[in-house]
Amino acid sequence: QRITEFLAAPFIIEGQSIFIGTSIGVLFNDPRYNSADIMLRDADTAMYHAKDKGKGRYEVFDSSMRKKVKHALKLEADIRDAIENKEFFPYFQPIVDLKNEAVVGFEALARWQSEKRGFVFPNDFIPLAEETNLVMAIDFQIIEQSCRQLKIWQEELQRDDLYISCNLFSSHFFSLTLPEDLAEIINKVGISPNKLRVELTERALLENSDIVLKNMQALKELGVKILLDDFGTGYSSLSYLHRFPIDVLKIDRSFINNVHEHDNHQAIIKTIIDLATNLQMATVGEGIENLADAQLLKEMDCSYGQGYYFAKPMPADDTNQYLLNS
To answer: If we measure between CA atoms, which residue out of 228, 235, 204, 232 comes closest to residue 281?
Structure first.
């Protein structure tokens, strides 16, 4: 604690105050250690736990930390094998027009059927996949499979009106090859670019904004629509809404869950919808779970909705029957 407080005082370099913070890993001597390298490894592990818990703090090593690191290393290796073996596939959740509840498209959500682990839930692999940037390869696999499923809906059900909406990790928008990568998938599968929508979070708009803007403009020229996901939960700087070519705002589920019971959430949602309307953007309400919320969003002129009230995410095999029933 004394080290942390001492280093928190500013260093004066060429008349400029420089501030640094510390994350410290603490390891106590133990008879089981017979190597300085192993001791440093475990102290390093404790330091990274301190970083993960918010920095500016210290953590004392215990054996559970090592188990966590081993688990993460094994999971990362399994994710790499799964990418190679194409074990990731999409589930589809319908997006409906709130005026008449007609299905207009589907959001594709990544799922993992592991040869080694069985079915793995997204919360168990997505965070590590994002941390290691392996999620980028997963995203492209999901997009390609989703586009192929869209082609099936078009050919077998004559549903040329549907679109597919896929999530892209923020790092994709820092890559100069993103437009070409998506164009290659679109051309290989043989769908119209305007049937593909990509979703990004506000985080992508806060870094490398010139590259992000260039990529978004290229996607727009290609014909791909762009959705801003989880709107209202990030930094929500209004300045980027008119700077970046965004077509749709997705209102985060945290505002929508039982919105009919929360007047303050209703005010926030109405503000977002009015803002989107003025900027000529559509809106999608996420996480609609009951009739009351669906009706309220419809009365507020929210364009589209998705959530368990309409349908849970479903495997591709179930979508044909769902579309026929709807």
So the answer is: 228
pLDDT digits (tens, 9 = 90+) for 61-91: 998 888 888 888 899 999 999 999 999 999 9
Three-state SS sequence of 159-176:
CCCCEEEEECCHHHHHCC
Average pLDDT, integer, range 260-269: 83
Residue range 107-137, pLDDT digits in tens: 999 999 999 999 999 999 999 999 899 999 9
Copy the structure tokens of residue 298: 């419809």
As to burial, measured by CB atoms within 10 angstroms (0-12 exposed, 13-18 middle, 19+ buried), residue 137 is middle
- Mark 242-271 as b/e (b = at least 16 C-beta within 10 Å): eebebebbbbbbebbbebbeeeebbebbbe
194: left (phi over 0), alpha (psi -120 to 50) or beta: alpha
Both tokens of 263, joined, read 């007047």
Name residues whose C-beta falls within 8 Å of residue 175's C-beta, 6 or more positions apart in sequence. 136, 181, 215
